[in-house]
Design a protein that fits this description.
2 copies of one chain form a homodimer. Chain A folds into 2 domains: 1-78, Orthogonal Bundle (Arc Repressor Mutant, subunit A), CATH 1.10.10.10; 80-131, Dna Ligase, domain 1 (2-Layer Sandwich), CATH 3.30.1490. In chain A, the strands form 2 sheets. In chain A, strands 1-3-2 form a 3-stranded antiparallel beta sheet. A 3-stranded mixed beta sheet of chain A has the order 5-4-6. Chain A starts with 11 loop residues before the first helix and ends with a helix. Chain A is of the alpha+beta class and 132 residues long. The longest helix of chain A is centred in the middle third of the chain and has 13 residues, at 46-58. The first copy, chain A, has 5 helices and 6 strands. Helix content of chain A is 39%, strand content 23%. The interface between A and B is medium-sized, with 32 and 32 residues. The structure holds a DNA duplex (30 and 30 nucleotides). Chains A, B: InterPro entries: FUR (IPR002481), Fur_C (IPR043135), WH-like_DNA-bd_sf (IPR036388), WH_DNA-bd_sf (IPR036390). Chains A, B: Zn(2+) binds at residues 87, 90, 127, 130. Chains A, B: It is found in: Cytoplasm. Chains A, B: Its main location: cytoplasm. Chains A, B: It comes from Micromonospora orduensis.
Chain lengths: 132, 132
DNA sequence: GCGTTTTTGACAATCATTATCGTTGCCACG
DNA sequence: CGTGGCAACGATAATGATTGTCAAAAACGC
């Protein structure tokens, strides 16, 4: 029996995924990460990669982005809340913080009586290198 | 020869989809809309519904939202740029405008040299009726 | 070490969206 | 008014990422 159900175990696969994310720059899809782990010789199932990523996302350790195109992209981000400026062409990403936006969103939501507020914001553009 | 390549033809199906969206409140998935058209006796293919919605979205006549859950939701919105405050529980939606956010996003993007800027913003919360 | 419980992982299932491709109907021009 | 080109249509198949399943393996507490 026991009382708490939060028994998160420390497994080789979980470490591998987490470590890989630590070294990567930019966003990668679950399938990308799975392929990379395979190349390194890590034996990890695709299912596990998905589960691990979801777990990390729930724990707030990584960010998830759903670009128009279907695939979910994951990335280890600096902690705290922030948003992303993504290049349409090359995918280059810049983290941006917008305290003003945060408070604006909260304020608007509360004005309408909405509670437990969260939001998603992505900015898309063409980066300097790709403009030419 | 010719001047504009916008040879958009005026078809029964396009009108039907557009008209239906005009009467609907809130967001609906492509498959929803297709089912409703069928119920009305309109004979429209699912493929065409998707194509038409994409066309309308490109033309800026409707809004697309990609909620966590996979389905794309479409809605005829008041013209102009705005965002949505969506209830997690019941889906009730409020349109909100945030000029400050718009300009902030543009400014941030330009500071980083990004051109041709757009953005997506959704606010999620629990509406008053669902809080209890 | 031992038993319990979580986690893993191969595979199948799901399901929205997209591609295909022959057919249909709109539109413009003769 | 008739005709031809060309885009739109639509049924079906294909795609492809994500989720469910469940027996086997591994971790943790003792």
């Amino acid at each position: 029996m026991s009382e708490n159900g939060a028994a998160v175990r420390n497994t080789r696969q979980r470490s591998a995924v987490s470590a890989l994310l630590g070294e990567m720059e930019g966003f990668h899809s679950a399938q990308d990460l799975h392929a990379m782990l395979r190349q390194r010789g890590e034996r990890v199932g695709l299912t596990t990669v998905y589960r691990t990523l979801q777990g990390l996302a729930d724990a707030g350790e990584i960010d998830v982005m759903r670009p128009p195109g279907g695939e979910h992209l994951y990335r280890r981000c600096s902690e705290g809340h922030h948003h992303h400026l993504v290049c349409r062409a090359c995918g280059r990403t810049v983290e941006v913080a917008g305290p003003a936006v945060e408070s604006w969103a909260d304020r608007v939501a509360e004005q309408h009586g909405y509670a437990d507020v969260s939001h998603t914001l992505e900015i898309f553009g063409t980066c300097p290198a790709c403009v030419r």
